Amino acid sequence: MFNFDYHTPTKIVFGRGAENRVGDLIKSYGGSRVLIHYGMGSAIRSGLLNRVKNILDEAGLFHVELGGVVPNPHLDKVRTGFALGTLNQVDFILAIGGGSVIDSSKAIAFALAEPETNVWELFEHTRRAKASLPVGSILTIAAAGSEMSRSVVITNEQTMEKRSYGDTLARPKFAIMDPELTMTLPAFQTACGCVDIMMHTMERYFTNGGNMDITDSIAEGLLRTVMKHANILRIKPNDYDSRAEIMWASSLAHNGLTGCGSDGGDFATHNLEHELSGMFNVTHGAGLSALWGSWARYVHKDCLPRFVKYAENVMGVESGFNKEETALKGIAATEAFFYKINMPTNLRDLGIQPTDAQIEKMAESCERATGGGIGSAKKLKKDDMIAIYHAAK
Ligand code: NZQ
Ligand code: ZN
Questions:
Q1: Contact present, 81 and 36 (Cβ < 8 Å)
Q2: Does the beta carbon of 344 lie inside 6 Å of ligand 1?
Q3: Which portions of the chain are predicted below pLDDT 50?
Q4: What local confidence, expressed as pLDDT, does residue 209 receive?
Q5: Nearest CA to 253 among 376, 145, 337?
Q6: Are the C-beta atoms of 182 and 243 separated by less than 8 Å?
Q7: What whole-number distance in Å separates Cα of residue 198 and Cα of residue 251?
Q8: Which pLDDT value is given to residue 320?
Q9: Residue 140 CB partners (closer than 8 Å, separation 6+)
Q10: What is the pLDDT of residue 321?
Q11: Which residues on adjacent β-strands are paired with residue 65?
């Protein structure tokens, strides 16, 4: 196993009605002038935005609001948030939404804390942040795990580059998690979220560097739990307990817990997907689902013991004499699960047909963005990435 630091300072307030505590929470982290940030309208339609504004009024907190964050959030909106935040001297960002809104909030918080700098440089990895304003969230979709994570993912819509930045400073101060708030999600978004949660766990599981039984057990239990409750939500979308299980899983899958003792994880599927999202604006979870099987078949021989363990402990494949066959059965069972929850298992299902030139461009960009290659199950270079995109067609 590898040495590790584990520090997840985000306070979790979980359960029915948790959002009623938002005013006190903001104050407890020193906030007095709040930028409320939200997406394309779900928070308005559900009435949540108005409820939150009333709570902040009652708490005597000044607030301004900025909506319109799109999925795969844009740099342009971050710049608008920076301008609005500067004008109103905000000292706290409250995200109401999912990964896109939280990431846009995190980026605005970085921009406001260092107003003389260009925030995109963080995503180009040409400098590190020195400070951030505090961010809190009211989570409305269980998926990205941004509510506890150290990552921020922003798309530069001018260059069509989707880039991530990781920093402990990006961990939000608090996350309010009321499973009932996720009941208005379309079935597609619920399923995309379940895939993303699984993938955050699997990215850390399929490695060749350092493993611990305790970490594996947590990861395997989390994966089995998400599959069980994704199946329930398909039939009973308003099942509170299943919503709660999935919501908590989203945070645990991406706050570092399922990677303790490993080499940092593989994350090739995520980086390949970010190129897809950047070029074709696909929904993150669906993009992951469309690519994973092709990635897994491409790399499984280089990480065979882990694929066998996964097949047996997560997908319930019977131990067989032929290890490779067991691994392939585990991959097929995972795809069958994705199919069952109406997720794509190739790019056609996803509704896109990249040309050879587009595949070349995505692979080139992915290699560049990852500093020359990515992966722990198998280190992928540009040619490997091209092969995986083609296999997924
Ligand atoms: O914009 P609104 O109208 O709010 O609609 C959203 C959006 O269309 C909708 N939605 C959210 N809550 C809802 C709801 N609709 C009805 N009822 C509700 N309660 O769901 C759609 C998707 O929202 P989004 O925030 O985009 O989803 P998600 O949480 O999956 O975030 C995806 C983004 O996070 C990034 C992804 O790349 C993508 O940009 N990621 C961020 C990570 C991080 N910061 O740690 C890690 C992830 O791997 C991921 O890359
Ligand atoms: Zn993800």
A1: no
A2: no
A3: none
A4: 84
A5: 145
A6: yes
A7: 11
A8: 83
A9: 42, 43, 46, 48, 96, 97, 98, 181, 182, 184, 185
A10: 87
A11: 36
Cα–Cα distance, 171 to 80 (Å, whole number): 22
**Residue 270 CA, distance from chain mean position:** 9
Distance from the CA of 139 to the center of ligand 1, in angstroms? 10
User: CA quadruple 207, 211, 214, 217: dihedral positive or negative?
Assistant: positive
What residues pack around ion ligand 2 (CB closer than 5 A)?
Answer: 196
Select from 361, 222, 341, 207 the least CA-distant residue to 286. Answer: 341
Residues 281, 278: Cα–Cα separation, whole Å = 6
In this prediction the pTM is 0.97
User: Hey, how many other C-beta atoms are within 10 angstroms of the C-beta on 80?
Assistant: 15
Among residues 125, 121, 177, which one has the least CA distance to residue 146? 177
| β-strand partners of 63 | 34
Residue entry with tokens 């995972």:
334
**Is the separation of the CB atoms in 176 and 19 below 8 Å?**
yes
Do 374 and 298 meet the contact criterion of CB atoms below 8 Å apart?
Answer: no
The bridge status of strand 151-156 relative to strand 161-166 is antiparallel
> Of all protein residues, whose CA lies closest to atom 15 belonging to ligand 1?
185
For a substitution probing ligand 1, which of 284, 288, 366 has the most ligand atoms within 8 Å of its CB?
A: 284
**Spatial distance between the Cα atoms of 246 and 82, rounded to a whole number of angstroms:** 33
Q: What are the tokens at 296? A: 């897994």
Pocket test for ligand 1, best of 49, 105, 146 (most atoms within 8 A of CB): 146
pLDDT of residue 95: 99
Which of 36, 103, 106, 288 to probe ligand 1 with, by most ligand atoms within 8 A of CB?
103
What integer pLDDT is reported at residue 111 of this predicted model? Answer: 98
Give the C-alpha separation, 341 to 240, whole Å. Answer: 19
Q: How far apart are CA 231 and CA 215, in angstroms?
A: 25
